[in-house]
Design goal:
Elements (H helix, E strand, L loop, with lengths): L1 E2 L9 H4 L10 E5 L15 H6 L1 H7 L3 E4 L3 E2 L11 E5 L6 H13 L3 E6 L9 H8 L12 E2 L22 E5 L5 E6 L14 H17 L3 E4 L36 H13 L6 E4 L6 H5 L9 E4 H4 L5 H16 L6 E3 L8 H4 L5 H17 L3 E5 L20 H4 L44 H4 L6 H14 L9 E2 L7 E6 L2 E6 L5 E4 L3 E5 L3 E4 L2 E4 L3 E6 L1
Parallel strand pairs: 2-3, 2-14, 3-6, 6-10, 10-11, 11-12, 12-13, 13-14
Antiparallel strand pairs: 1-20, 4-5, 7-9, 8-9, 15-16, 16-17, 17-22, 18-21, 19-22, 20-21
Bound molecules: alpha-D-glucopyranose (GLC).
Length: 546
């Protein structure tokens, strides 16, 4: 017998209303604002577009959304270069649109997390302009990291740090007289000068910015570069020439310094002073799971993206190891683990897992989604992964916007290919993204991947996600809690149980036959049953009720 496991249950509002620490089990959907939905036809997604599509997210079954930066910005790094933390960029709407979006989301039972970018501002921020206008040693410069250069005429950067986007992490200033002056630090693009978190004004300003958005009603913050705000004292040379990676585990004097935790503790107190369980989630690239767990100690942030899981190779042994290490590390501090497979900075996992074979990649991506959503803790879904979107690997150079692309080989690959606007409906580009075009071109075959094309097709990736999220809300064993490995699984197969539930993942390139462990409730590919045996195809994940 072949069995397709179509959607079975829909969550009731009650089943999804987590009372004790909603974030511990939450599935949070990342909205990359530029690329989600465009309401005004300029080809760039905006806040009104998101508001109009909120019923889609509520129907998908997620608990919350995270909005990438929509603040006033020259867009040198997709909005991660903020010129005014309290204003909405006209590209995305106005403050009243943010307000409407938060209210409407809440009405639909969705929480809203916004991005906060505290490591650096835009070079167009009033503070940085004042700093440039100030003299060396002036108070306006103390909010950033200004230093004299080395060499006889100060012509060399103050130290050997490299920007994550490639090239030196320092840029020399030119005074009003045209003379070269001090250098300033930017771990990212030159348009993103790093703030000096030893400066009391910087701390006070961010407290005020957090309060501004909390007062507007947001449910928390995704903290950009949460591991970078504090630099090692004296800004020491690294002494190695290897390029620093954002997505990496190198030990560096500007990432994961112990001093950042004091800032997060202070922010936690601020969050706790508001009602309604407002949360902080760290975008922190730490060398180990143990170092990452420090960010989610009881008096610090609520979540930290598990990038060890994101970067793990496909396969039972490496995946089991990462799962064990992450659970052990977060358990040691009493926090949930926060699983993530993709975001706006990495190659989409449907492509990553395929290593050149799209069909294989999608198969594994579907299986990985069921694995992730069955593991203890919370999970993030990056927009479009529920459609099984692949990375767009053939964007013409002239449409690219990622600063990393223009600054050499700083990042692994480039990041525009995962930021292509979503296909919603219709036969022709921009596939319902908006009434105009789309800021990055969508491949023609995305017509078949649109929300409309996949809705109602029980074999589609979209319906797989809808079913998984619905079941996650219904099955009490899922979400926060414990899991136990079932060690009778054959090599290459991961099997674990949770109360009333078993998950089996065949990571092999061939099918495996196993004794049926329970009632199948969802599978990433069709199963075959004979007697008491189930044949699980290659690269397939199955959920069982027991
Ligand atoms: C974070 C963002 C990334 C951005 C960088 C600098 O890693 O996710 O998109 O380029 O910070 O702000």
């Amino acid at each position: 017998m072949t069995q397709d496991l179509a959607p079975t249950v829909r969550p009731s509002a009650d089943a999804r209303a987590h009372t004790d620490g909603w974030w511990r089990s939450a599935v949070i959907y990342q909205v990359y604002v530029r690329s989600f939905a465009d309401s005004d036809g300029d080809g760039i997604g905006d806040l009104r577009g998101i508001r109009e599509r909120l019923p889609y997210l509520a129907g998908l079954g997620v608990d919350a959304l995270w909005l990438t930066p929509f603040y006033a910005s020259p867009q040198a790094d997709g909005g991660y270069d903020v010129a005014d933390y309290r204003a909405v960029d006209p590209l995305f709407g106005q403050l009243s649109d943010a307000d409407d979006l938060v209210r409407e989301a809440h009405r639909l039972g969705l929480r809203v997390i916004v991005d906060i970018v505290p490591n650096h501002t835009s070079d167009q921020h009033a503070w940085f302009r004042a700093a440039l206008a100030d003299r060396p040693g002036g108070t306006a410069r103390e909010r950033y990291h200004f230093r004299p250069g080395k060499g006889e005429r100060g012509q060399l950067p103050p130290n050997d740090w490299e920007s994550v986007f490639g090239g030196p992490a320092w840029t020399r200033t030119t005074g009003p007289d045209g003379e070269s002056g001090e250098w300033y630090l930017h771990l990212f693009a030159p348009e993103q000068p790093d703030l000096n978190w030893d400066n009391a004004e910087v701390r006070a300003e961010f407290d005020s910015v957090l309060r501004f958005w909390l007062d507007l009603g947001v449910d928390g913050f995704r903290i950009d570069v949460a591991h970078g705000m504090v630099k090692a004292a004296g800004l020491p040379d690294i002494g190695l020439s290897e390029q620093a990676k954002l997505i990496g585990a190198q030990v560096l004097p500007f990432f994961d310094q112990d001093g950042v935790h004091e800032i997060h503790r202070a922010w936690r107190q601020l969050l706790d002073s508001y009602d309604g369980q407002r949360i902080g989630v760290a975008e922190a690239w730490a060398p180990t799971s143990e170092r990452l767990a420090l960010y989610v100690r009881p008096d610090e942030l609520h979540q930290a993206f598990n990038f060890q899981f994101l970067t793990c190779d496909w396969g039972a042994a490496p995946m089991r190891q990462v799962i064990d290490e992450s659970l052990a590390a977060t358990r040691s501090v009493g926090a949930p683990t926060t699983w993530v497979l993709s975001n706006h900075d990495v190659v989409r996992h449907a492509t990553r897992y395929g290593a050149g074979d799209e069909e294989l990649g999608l198969r594994r991506a579907r299986a990985a989604a069921l694995l992730m959503l069955a593991l203890p803790g919370s999970a993030y879904v990056y927009q479009g992964e529920e459609l099984g979107l692949p990375e767009v690997v053939d964007l013409p150079d002239e449409v690219r916007q990622d600063p990393a692309f223009f600054r050499g080989d700083g990042q692994d690959g480039t990041r525009d290919g995962c930021r292509v606007p979503l296909p919603w409906s219709g036969e022709a580009a921009p596939y319902g993204f908006g009434p105009g075009g789309s800021w990055l071109p969508q491949p023609g075959r995305w017509r078949e991947l649109s929300v409309e094309a996949q809705s109602g097709d029980p074999r589609s990736t979209l319906e797989l996600y809808r079913s998984a999220l619905a079941l996650r809300g219904e099955l009490p064993g899922l979400g926060d809690g414990e899991m136990v490995w079932l060690d009778d699984a054959p090599e290459g197969v991961l099997a674990f149980s949770r109360p009333g539930f078993v998950c089996t993942l065949n990571t092999l390139g061939a099918e495996v036959a196993l004794p049926v462990p329970g009632r199948p409730v969802l599978s990433s590919a069709a199963l075959e049953f004979a007697g008491g045996t189930v044949r699980i195809p290659s690269d397939t994940c199955v959920w069982w009720a027991v």
